[in-house]
Amino acid sequence: MSELTELYDQVRVCEKCQLSQSRTLAVPGEGPEDARILFIGEAPGFHEDRQGRPFVGAAGQYLNELLAKIGLRREEVYIANVIKCRPPGNRDPLPDEIATCRPYLDRQIELIRPRLVVTLGRFSMERYFPGASISRIHGQPKRVGSIIYYPMFHPAAALHQPRWKTLLDEDFARIPGLLEQLEQIEEEEEQPRPPQAEQLSLF
Ligand code: SF4
User: Fold this and answer.
1) Dist CA 25 CA 55 (whole Å)
2) 20-24, 57-61, 124-128, 161-165: least confidently modelled range
3) Cα 22–100–168 angle (5° rounding)?
């Protein structure tokens, strides 16, 4: 059993926060254990809570379509959420719930070691762009060391806001270019490394 599988088992029986009382199934996340691309959403919704899988409702269908448009299959990417259990009525996750659940996502990221981290919505954006406004920074990648962080609107929000949907479509279309950028980064890594990790905006 891999460490990631063990983590899933811990999540499924977790009772560390109040969401364990109202959930049907916890949703640990899914995808290849060595995925190059990680998508981080917000929290499970109604269908995810029933099935124990991330992004299986209308937003998930839309995410699948967006992936297909850029030539990616869902099975090629890892999909997780900031919190692993559904908040009642799909309310926003509370700060203490996010903080309590955070070690699970931290460990997932440590184990998967993705090179492109796409944040979907403001709650996952907050991990890497604290205090930022998603309407201002969506579509603006940030490189930290050898990882690119890329903030976007959440597909569920975009489904309800035609203007955001257009922006999400545009931001998604830039992912192939970022993957090319990653290949350059990997080539750089084969060269002697600078003494300190660099932090810069790519665009
Ligand atoms: S949301 Fe996270 S911390 Fe809370 S019960 Fe679910 S897995 Fe545990």
Assistant:
1) 14
2) 161-165
3) 80
Distance 98 CA to ligand 1 centre (A): 8
pLDDT for the residue 200:
45
Angstrom distances, CA of residue 61 to CA of 23, 47, 72, 155 = 22, 12, 14, 9
Q: How do residues 144-177 score in pLDDT, each as one tens digit?
A: 988 999 999 999 999 999 899 999 999 999 999 9
| CA of 10 relative to ligand 1 center, distance in Å | 10
CA 3 vs CA 10, 54, 104, 112: distances in Å: 11, 19, 12, 10
Which ligand 1 atom is nearest residue 100's CA?
3
Q: Is the CB of 77 under 6 A from ligand 1?
A: no
